[in-house]
Write a structure and sequence with these properties.
By secondary structure, the protein is an alpha+beta fold. The protein is built from 6 helices and 8 strands. The chain folds into 2 domains: 1-115; 144-216, Phenylalanyl-tRNA Synthetase, Chain B, domain 1, CATH 3.30.56. An 8-stranded antiparallel sheet has the order 2-3-4-1-5-6-8-7, with helices on both faces. Strand 7 (177-181) and strand 8 form a beta hairpin.
Length: 216
């Protein structure tokens, strides 16, 4: 079973690719190996005439972890998820130190990247959800609540109709850990990797609590 971690961050025209990349790299260096970077980090990518500038991180991360960060060209940006910067990491959870990812690296990624959304779980979930999730702007809606997830304060208000703090209180009962991080809600359903069926059950339980209790 392969896992994927996706982080999304709003791209701003006054925050250059180089500035944002350098902040992220400083954060990854601070996290350290294996989930961060040891040694000299990669330089900021240049989009040239393309809309996306991508930097591969494979050879800078620990063994068994692959990924990249992609930055949107800083012109013509609109208030939509299509214009986000994003970061993706892929790995097999039984071949890495998964606990360190949850206890140390994940919050570091979210902070360093300025992420408003982070989702971690079986890679298969993205394929299962593709037809429905692509209809939702990820800055404004949530189709599936992932077993490991972070939703920023604004996204919580728009997608769930309650504050991040309220999301945490409502979902504490179905999570191994739920807490406010920065202005958002960090949700950890389980500290051990879960499969697709377990992910589905968590999603159903989380949505049920949000729908039943949000107005209470």
């Amino acid at each position: 079973m392969k896992y994927a971690l996706t982080l999304r961050s709003v791209a701003h025209p006054n925050d250059s690719i180089a500035e944002k990349h350098n902040r992220l790299m400083r954060g990854l260096v601070a996290i350290g190996s294996p989930w961060g970077i040891s040694g000299e980090p990669p330089a900021a990518p240049d989009p040239g005439r393309e809309l996306i500038a991508k930097s591969r991180l494979d050879r800078f991360l620990g063994e068994g972890i692959k990924g990249y960060v992609a930055y949107r060209y800083r012109s013509g940006l609109r208030d939509q998820a299509m214009d986000d910067d994003h970061m993706v990491l892929e790995f097999h959870p039984d071949r890495v130190d998964y606990d360190v990812l949850l206890t140390e690296a994940l919050s570091g990624y979210i902070t360093a990247f300025g992420a408003y959304r982070a989702e971690l779980g079986p890679e298969e979930l993205a394929d299962l959800d593709f037809d429905q999730s692509r209809k939702i702007d990820k800055r404004r809606g949530v189709y599936r609540i992932y077993p490991i997830s972070f939703y920023g304060g604004t996204l919580c208000e728009v997608a769930f109709g309650v504050s991040a703090g309220r999301v945490v209180k409502l979902l504490t009962a179905v999570c191994a850990e739920a807490r406010v991080l920065s202005d958002g809600a960090l949700l950890i359903a389980s500290r051990v990797p879960v499969d697709v069926e377990q992910s589905r059950r968590f999603n159903d339980a989380a949505w049920q609590r949000l729908r039943e209790r949000a107005s209470a």
